[in-house]
Design a protein that fits this description.
The chain starts with a helix and ends with a strand. The chain has a single domain, classed as Phosphoenolpyruvate-binding domains (TIM Barrel). Mean pLDDT is 90; it is low at 1-16. α4 (105-122) crosses α5. It is built from 17 helices and ten strands. It has an eight-stranded parallel beta sheet with strand order 5-4-3-2-1-8-7-6. It is globular, with a radius of gyration of 20 Å. It is an alpha/beta fold and 363 residues long. The chain has helices spanning 4-9, 36-40, 72-84, 105-122, 132-141, 157-163, 181-193, 213-221, 223-226, 239-244, 252-255, 284-293, 309-312, 326-332, 334-337, 345-348, 350-358, and strands spanning 24-27, 47-53, 88-93, 126-129, 146-149, 170-172, 197-201, 273-276, 315-317, 359-361.
Length: 363
Amino acid sequence: MKNINAVSKAIQPVWSITMSKLTFSVGYPCAAPQSFFNTVAPYLDRIGELYFALPDFATGRATFENDPRHDREKLATELQLFCEQGVSLNLLLNGNCYGGQAISCTFANDVRNAVGDLYERFGLHTVTTASPFVAHVVKTNFPTIDVRASVNMWLDGVAGMQQCADLFDSFYVKRDYHYCIDEIRAEHEWCHQNGKRLYLLANSGCIPHCAYHTFHDNFVAHSAAVAKSPKDATFEPYACRRMMAKSENRYMILAGNLVRPEDVHHYEGLVDGIKLATRIHPFPAIVISAYMRGRWQGDLSALTEPGFGDLLAPYILDNAAIPSTYWAQKTACARAQSKGSTAACHECGYCAAVYRNILTEME
C-alpha cells in the first residue's frame, strides 16, 4: 500500500478553491415541509434546472404517503415560482420498471397527458426517463422537449449513447466513469458533434459497480406495492448498506463516484451541467449550498445520496482534511485509466488511506 503523503508529494498542491461556472440541476424533495423555492432562492443564479416527479408515476425514488407531490396545488405553485425565475423544468419519468404497462397504449396516453399538461402550464423543458418507450412517446408527440436518458439507465459510454441517439437529446456520464477524464472527454466530444448534451451527477453515494443496481431500481419503482407487503427482515435489499455495514468497506465512500464540491470546477468544458441528488436528502439546502460555494468543511458523508452517516457514527469524514491533490490523484490512478475498474484498488490503497486519515470522532 502506498503512503498517502508520499503520493501527495508527487503532485503539486493547489490550495485555492475555484468556483465552478457550471449550472446545477436540483431535485424537488420527496418530503418538503416548507417551500423548496424559498429554501434555494439564494442560489437561483446558479440553478439552471429543477427536476421533479409526479405521484402517479414510478420513478427512481420511493413514493411515500406524506409525499408533498400529492398536494397538486402546492406543487403547481412551486413549479410556477421556479418557472418565473427562468429555471427550466425537468419531469422525471425514470422508473426502471412499469410492469405490464411498460409499452401499453394506456401508459402512452398517461405519459402524453401528463407531459402535455405540464408543457402547456409551465413550458416543460425536459423529460428524463429510463424507459426507451417513454422516450419514444415524448419524442414523437413533443419534438421540442429535451428527452434525457436517466443516469439509472447506466449507459456505457459512447457505444451506449449511439444505440439510442434517435430517442434522446441528452445523457449522463455513467457513475463509474466520474474520474475517467479521457472517457468523459470522448463522450462530451461525441455529444456535441451530434447535437447532444452531457451531464454528471455529482453527489452520488452509490458504490462502484453496484451488483444490485437493476434489482434496486426495480425494487424502488414498485415501492408503493412493496410498502404494503410484509418484509423479510433478514434480507438487506441495498448493496451499498450491505457493504458499508462492514467497517473495512467504508472507504468505498471515497473510492466510489462522489465528486466533492471543491472538484466540480474541473468538469468545466467536459459536461454541460451538474446534477445534485436532493430528492430524498434530509437537508437539501446543505448540499446545494456546499456545491454552489465550491467548499464544504463538514462531514463529507453528509453530502451524499444515499448517505451513510448512521453507519459511520460516532465518526464523521472531515472533508477539510482531504489532501489538495485528491482529485489529481484519483484521475491518474489505475481505476481511472481502466474505465472505472476497481480491480487495482486493493493494490493502490490511496482512497482507503485518505479515508483513515479523515475519519474523525464527533465532538
